[in-house]
Amino acid sequence: MLNASQYIKEHIRTVENWPQQGVMFRDITPLLQDPKTFRVLIDLFVHRYMDAKLDMVAGLDARGFIIGSVLAYELNLGFVPIRKKGKLPFTTLSEQYELEYGSATVELHADACKPGDRVVLIDDLIATGGTMMAGKKLLERLGAEVVEGAVIVDLPELGGSKLLKSSGLQLYTVCDFDGH
User: Fold this and answer.
1) Of these four, 46, 69, 149, 173, which has the most CB atoms within 10 Å of its CB?
2) How far apart are CA 180 and CA 177, in angstroms?
3) CATH: 3.40.1710.10, 3.20.20.370, 3.40.50.2020, 3.40.630.30. Which one for 4-176?
4) Nearest-angstrom CA–CA distance, 10 and 133
5) In what helix (H) or strand (E) does residue 146 lie, and over which residues does it extend?
């Protein structure tokens, strides 16, 4: 019998050489398309955070919105979208971070949360850790406490989870993929 982590991992498709040669893209859309698998995934997160005394769930653009908004709904919490630069209409704070092939910027509304709010930060996966680190910094600039970072997939060979843990961020990952 599979445990929940193995069950979720079996529903993640690997797409070779996308978006560029040599990359093994971990595609979560098959697990989202199957209602049973999607429910198992959401239930893993709900059970983890149901007693965590959280105030908000923050999701990173774009796949973190899928899991984060459903989790916020299930926990009866507000949801904070952390978006790519230029997508939010109100006053924003921004944080630039480095990618393997350049840099990017994420933003959140200046009134997205209050000092002291306990927040879980959600995304689909951790690669180099840059996006989640930028989201953590933005939330902390507003005075929030980022209780934990949570993802479906960790790609440990890319070093992101190690970087995030060394920054003091607790991490929850459903499954990981090493190499191929």
Assistant:
1) 149
2) 7
3) 3.40.50.2020
4) 28
5) strand 145-154
